[in-house]
Amino acid sequence: MPSPTPQPDYVLVRPQMGENIGAAARAMWNFGLDRMRLVAPRDGWPNPAADAMASGAGRLLDEAQVYPSTAEAVADADFVLATTARPRGLTKPVYSPEAALAETAERTARGERVAVLFGPERAGLENADIALANGIVSVPVNPEFPSLNLAQCVLLTAYEWRRATAEVTPRATALAGTDWANQAEVAALARHYEERMDAAGFFFPEHKAEGMKLNLRNLWSRMPLTRSDVQTLHGILRQMVRWKDRGG
Fold first, then answer.
1. pLDDT tens sequence across 37-93
2. Which domains does the chain have, with CATH numbers?
3. Nearest to 64 by CA among 93, 43, 33, 88
4. In whole angstroms, how large is the CA radius of gyration of the chain?
5. Average pLDDT of 8-14?
6. How far apart are CA 217 and CA 225, in angstroms?
7. Among 2, 105, 185, 210, which residue has the fewest nearby CB atoms (within 10 Å)?
8. DSSP β-bridge partners for residue 38
């Protein structure tokens, strides 16, 4: 059963290969979309090749709704977007994928039903299909090679849907079972190194020693150290001292 989360219907118009339908289902489910509609699939439905390619997203294929025409597939939609890479000579708003799925998110949140059309692999949507849409989604591809695989286009728009509806952290650090070192831990590490380096005669000549120590403390404070890093650096220094004391 489709998830209750408000979301668009992804409508694959006259898809030609079962493998691409399965790959599209997988791409949809990667980003939390599970409402697939099929318009007159060339090889009939169901299609074993689609099941093999769906790889864990078979539920979408089982629940996919099949329609004989694009008009019937979008009859209950309040807003329809058509994906195409080529100029069509039709006067319509043209959206980037980011803007299109942001608008889709706003409309579905208001309770509207939105359908996104994807054309067959060989030539994409026909003008008769696009004429049913309220707007066009145009992907900024290489103009010398504008053709996108069906599943790639589904994946691209599904990703933009996810960006529009979920909090996406632009950058994070995986701490691998540790935490960031606090100021006291970094300060203790700095003192340990300063003491050992002082004993080794590093801070020379004497009139420059304080400036050298200040630079070293500043170096430690700039470094994003974890507690594991601090423990490792303490251990390295202790082992070097032991090695020296053993006459290494």
1. 999 999 999 999 999 999 899 999 999 999 999 999 999 999 999 998 766 678 899
2. 9-165 (3.40.1280.10), 183-245 (no CATH)
3. 33
4. 30
5. 98
6. 13
7. 210
8. 12, 66
Mean pLDDT computed over 161-170: 92
The predicted model scores a pTM of: 0.81
User: For 93-115, what is each residue's pLDDT tens digit?
Assistant: 999 999 999 999 999 999 999 99
Q: Report d(CA 67, CA 41) in Å as an integer.
A: 9
The C-alpha torsion from 173 through 176 and 180 to 181, rounded to 10°, is: -150
Task: Label each residue of the chain as H, E or C.
Answer: CCCCCCCCEEEEECCCCHHHHHHHHHHHHHCCCCCEEEECCCCCCCCHHHHHHHCCCHHHHHHCEEECCHHHHCCCCCEEEEECCCCCCCCCCEECHHHHHHHHHHHHHCCCCEEEEECCCCCCCCHHHHCCCCEEECCCCCCCCCCCCHHHHHHHHHHHHHHHHCCCCCCCCCCCCCCECCHHHHHHHHHHHHHHHHHCCCCCCHHHHHHHHHHHHHHHHHCCCEHHHHHHHHHHHHHHHHHHHCCC
List phi, psi (to 5°) of 99: -70, -40
Q: Is residue 226 within 8 Å of residue 234, measured between CB atoms?
A: no
